[in-house]
Amino acid sequence: MILNDQEKKMLEGEYGPGTQRAMAFLKTLGEALGAEKMVKVTSTHILPDMPTEYLEQMTEGVVRFMTRVSLMPCFDPIFWREKYGIVSKEKLIGGVGLTDEKDYAKNLAILKKLGVIPTFTCTPYTVGIVPRRNDTVIWSGTSGQNAANSMFGARAPRHSLATSVASSIAGVAPYEGLMKPENRFAELLIETKGLDSASFTPASFGALGYYVGKLAQTRNVVFDGLPPTMTIEQCKYLTSPLTVDGACTMCHIVGVTPEAPTLEAALGGQKPRQVVNVTKKDLQDVQDMFNTASPSQVKLAVFGCPHLTITELGELASLLEGKRLKEGAQLVVGASNMTYGLAREAGYADVFEKVRAIVTNCCVSGQNPFVHILGVDAVATNSARGARFFQTQTAGRCRTYYGDMKDCVDLVTAA
Amino acid sequence: MKLKGHTISPGKAEGEAVVLEEPFSFLGELDPNTGKIASPLSKHFGQDLRGKVIVTPTGKGSSMGSVISWYAMKAGNNPAAIICLQAEAILASAAIVAGIPMIDKLDKNPFEFIRPGDYVKVDATAGIVEVGSQ
Fold first, then answer.
1. Is residue B62 annotated as part of the catalytic site, yes or no?
2. Which has the higher per-residue pLDDT, A245 or A65?
3. What's the rounded mean pLDDT across residues A14-32?
């Protein structure tokens, strides 16, 4: 791999031990992935919940991050203890979030000192972190990666939290994968003619995304025949489950996404390697897999995987208007503080507060304290991504009810 | 039997093979506190991966996988080595971060030549896998 003079200096330790470790990691990874050089990165998005020792090692001697760094949601143990009296004795939550208050505070202090923007969201595009087409970005959070590529046309290869940390420090990343225009065309064509997609709900889009992600694995896909009027929220529910049991990071939707004005453009003028006709039964099978809880078992409804947009918060507020939570039921809503600030301006927050919904900017599936600390074992959600995470990150203990926002609200509220 | 491949994460290790037919993710599949497969939907649910050589098609899933391997490393619960058909960035990162030797693109299909329980030696630095000799 060819490094320029500055990158060589980083590798040789001239910028300190943390930068040296970051460059050594990026070089090993770049060679593993067949990259010939590094490229500059404009935006990185990182998750604060990482081992403190790891973060300390990587940032040793680092004065300032080299990119615009924003933050993923993270489990805030101080918030949950102070506001809801929830404390975990385990070091980790759901396998990821830090529950030790000192570690949490230490991580945040390190990151803020180095210049992060504390967005705390998995949908950075809802808080003004919007990549320009062809921008090179290294985002943690596979749903955000897919959104950056698919919805915004950014160069956002599939990468890990470790890469986003290293790229924040070194300001570069290996030039490979989806950064290269020739690697962005679709290989797998998804035909949706038999699906009546004009009347799809978010749960239908989620089931389709999960099914296709598992099938596609690392391949790029193009959906043909979906409504050209698809909203950003519908795109979010389609694309976010593509990376749950798959690793599909580039998804074209003909007539919707920027690199797919036509099917031919999405395929780069080539024939697709595989054509798959998704059937209603395929989607029903996914829905069945995510419906392992009976409605009567559900005492917790969760929305916001990925974080809700202001439009969705408005929809949820209108569904909750005049209702109350049933005895013993809980409602957890995930959104960024900035979006929730807007909801406050719009009056939606009054409705949430009245029904005592818990609104949080943490990750509501992977780091949900009701599921991962208090042991709630049946959850209703409108997110395919969330449903699968509840199942896998509790070793199957947590059963799920999968439906649309209204179905889930109806399970936990009464007039 | 000797197979040649491509280095993803350097290092040497050996152990019994665990053959996972499906792509692997550290997050959701490996419980860093026990080293066992945690996903109930996996055919290998409960399988102990500590000190084992994993054979898997590729990686999948969340970008957090790369630090789960760090937690598992600190607890001594990581697999010994990873062999895959073709690496992707998150599984590769997880291996590099935790110093797990990892190799891909072998000259012969590892799913045909490595059986569950085979003793496998991996020299990921040299890109060599030896099967069946302890």
1. yes
2. A65
3. 98
Burial class (CB in 10 A: 0-12, 13-18, 19+), A34: middle
- Residue A90 shares a structural domain with residue A218: no
Q: What residue in B sits closest to A143 (Cα-Cα)?
A: B62
Q: What is the pLDDT of residues A102-144, one digit of tens each?
A: 999 999 999 999 999 999 999 999 999 999 999 999 999 889 9
Q: Is the peptide bond before A306 cis (omega within 30 degrees of 0)?
A: yes
Which chain B positions have a beta carbon within 8 Å of A148's beta carbon? none
Give Rg (Cα) of chain B.
Answer: 13
B9·A31 Cβ contact <8 A = no
Mean pLDDT of chain B, nearest integer: 93
Which of A:287-326 have CB within 8 Å of B? none
Q: Which residues does chain A have within 8 Å of residue B102's beta carbon, measured at their own beta carbons?
A: 32
Shortest Cα distance, chain B CAs vs residue A226, angstroms: 25
* C-alpha–C-alpha distance, residues A127 and A297, integer Å: 36
The domains located in chain B, with CATH, are 2-131 (3.50.30.10)
pLDDT at A204: 97
Q: What is the pLDDT of residues A161-170, one digit of tens each?
A: 999 999 999 9
Does A340 lie in the same domain as A266?
no
Contact call for B63 and A389, based on CB within 8 A: no
CA distance A316 to A38: 44
Q: In what order do the strands lie in the sheet with A188-191?
A: A251-253, A221-224, A188-191, A274-277
Same domain, A34 and A164: yes
Range of the domain at A207: 185-287
Q: Is B76 on the interface with A (CB under 8 A)?
A: no
What CATH code is carried by the domain that includes residue A404? 3.30.499.10
A301 and A210 in a single domain? The answer is no
Q: Which residues of A touch B38 (CB under 8 A)?
A: 95, 392-393, 395
- One domain, residues A283 and A334: no
The closest CB to that of B63, out of A95, A161, A218, belongs to: A161
Digit-coded pLDDT (tens) for A308-340 = 999 999 999 999 999 999 999 999 999 999 999
User: What global pTM score does this model have?
Assistant: 0.93
Residues A54 and A144 in one domain: yes
Domain boundary residue, one of A263, A287, A311:
A287
Residue B65's pLDDT band, with cuts at 50, 70 and 90, is confident
pLDDT of amino acid B134: 56
A212-240 pLDDT per residue, tens = 999 998 899 999 999 999 999 999 999 99
ipTM: 0.96
- Least CB–CB distance from A32: residue in B9, B60, B68: B9
Tell me the C-alpha distance between A54 and B69, whole Å: 12
**A240 and A358 belong to one structural domain:** no
Same domain? A64 vs A81 = yes
Indicate the residue among A287, A315, A347 that finishes a domain.
A287
B96 CB near a chain A CB, below 8 Å? yes
Structural domain count, chain A: 3
Closest by CA to B68, choosing from A92, A213, A297, A250, is A92
For A29, counting Cβ atoms within 10 Å of its Cβ (0-12 exposed, 13-18 middle, 19+ buried), the class is buried
